[in-house]
């Protein structure tokens, strides 16, 4: 993989304030893995790249911005909850104030600061400002796309990409992935035909594009094409199963088709083999909500779950007092109810009530981008 150095970023109109080519390449490696939803072992994974990046240039502001932004996207945390994150954001701000950054970099730093404080809409406004002048800024595109996803802002997920899509000519690195990102926004706003066409284009260029696979999984779900959906997931599994940040969610979609067919044991097998192990390995918020909503669906269908809620509860329990997204809270509640942990349930509801009454807390609405996440059937 050819990674962009200082000159390559500058030539692309996305200059980075560092003299370290190593830091620039590691920034590119991190961004690429984020776009692909994959920790690439040959690159050292995202964490490996970020630690080398910080060593290469500890004052590289965009390195701090991507690092903090990825923690926020992956964990759904905030500076109010996480002392390490709080310190990391403070460091990012200090680093950015002791040098002259480009206006684009300054906006990135401010956006991540807003995101860290829980002000998702303001962060999105700042990323959109970047995209106005720098339509090929993939970090601004991905961060805003994912933040809109959390907010359930479906039209924005589509229009944010629609505005910049013409600038992503095939010569721009990662351009095929923009087709997949745009396609998801189209699907979320019911333009299924256009979404499918674009996702297939993306997959014809890069079959391992797990986000485009995910879009097609949604389209089959929304059209109640259970048989087609199952066949698609089976045929493509080899391409996306190693995208460790999204594979769990794609397996979750696969299991949804099985639930709709009434094949509960097969759905449970996917849960046991892929969804729970992913949750236990990552603790990522997407894996948390997938685990909870899968078990909750099966329980509503009358399926005996054994001790499965007890395996999820230790992960969700740590978030009982977070109250960052109501969408997440609803899933933590499923776990504490499922495990019959009355104390945790009571604590979650009491602190949620307090948070809703506190002027300092900024509760975000339920993210309904994955609309069927909270519904048993969407068709
Ligand atoms: Fe989904």
Give an account of the 3D structure.
Keywords: Repeat, TPR repeat. This is Tetratricopeptide repeat protein 38. InterPro entries: TPR-like_helical_dom_sf (IPR011990), TTC38 (IPR033891). This protein is mainly alpha-helical. The chain has a domain at 1-150: Serine Threonine Protein Phosphatase 5, Tetratricopeptide repeat, CATH 1.25.40. It is built from 19 helices and no strands. Residues 368-379 have low confidence and may be disordered. The structure holds fe (ii) ion (FE2). The site of fe (ii) ion has 5 residues, from α12 and α14.
Q: Roughly how many Å apart are the termini?
A: 41 Å
**Helical amount among residues, as a percent range?**
55-70%
Level-1 CATH class name of the domain at 1-150: Mainly Alpha
Count of helical regions = 19
Query: Biggest sheet, open or closed, and with what strands and sense?
Result: none
> How many strands in all?
0
Mean pLDDT over the residues = 92
- Using the 3D structure, state the CATH architecture of the domain at 1-150: Alpha Horseshoe
Rg value: 20 Å
